[in-house]
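EI: anyone free to look at a 248-residue chain?
SC: sure, send it
EI:
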Amino acid sequence: MRRSPFLRVVGALALLTADASLGGLSHGLGLVPRSQRSGLVKRRRVQAPATATDRIAQVTIGAYVAQVARPSLAALGARSTRLILRAGQWWRLATPMLLHGSPAHLMVNMLALRNVGGALERAYGSKRTALVYALAGVGGNVLPVVLKGMSDSALSVGASGAVAGLVGALAVHLYRHSHLYGTSGLKSIRDTVLMNAALGMTSHNVDNLAHLGGLLTGAASAYVFGANWVRPYEGAQHYVDRPLVRLF
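SC: here you go
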């Protein structure tokens, strides 16, 4: 069974978000505007919890416990292109994000989810973050099915496509608001993703298309309904959120 660990990318991103001083980053890959970085530690203590991120992690861990108790769930829910196309088992486009190949696979994905998802949730809120995650998880499975078709005989599991979508969404958010955050966080994401994508090409056990599909889906989702902070009128001293499409 092919696993989608995305270990190098998410592991590096987890380290980035854990160290507030690395590369000029602060509070979740630079998600603190320049004008608000003073008194950061004090604000962090009273910050609301990242509820969507925590709940996604809880559901995913619970699903893995069920998978260990009933190993047949992995075969039932893993992405199988042939079963999707021949037997119409379309649920396999979504269920792989709930399954993992090992405790280490689960741990790394959940660590990255907590860090990257937590950073995005502070900007997007719980509902939009959860939607980005779900869409990216599906998108990460759609792309290999479309591009490989019946030639893909492997089974694939893992939430890394969904996590990659959070990375893509965070990159779009930082790019869209670079006038507020600067560019250090965006550059760190770019360098880490490029480096690990290149390394991933050397392994047959890494589902690179799933990661790419998730990344692109997350980026597109962020562009369409992600946070878009603008001044409501010329000379205003505050920003309002005006996404291209308002869902919530």
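EI: Residues 15-30, 37-46 have pLDDT under 50 and may be disordered.
SC: 👍
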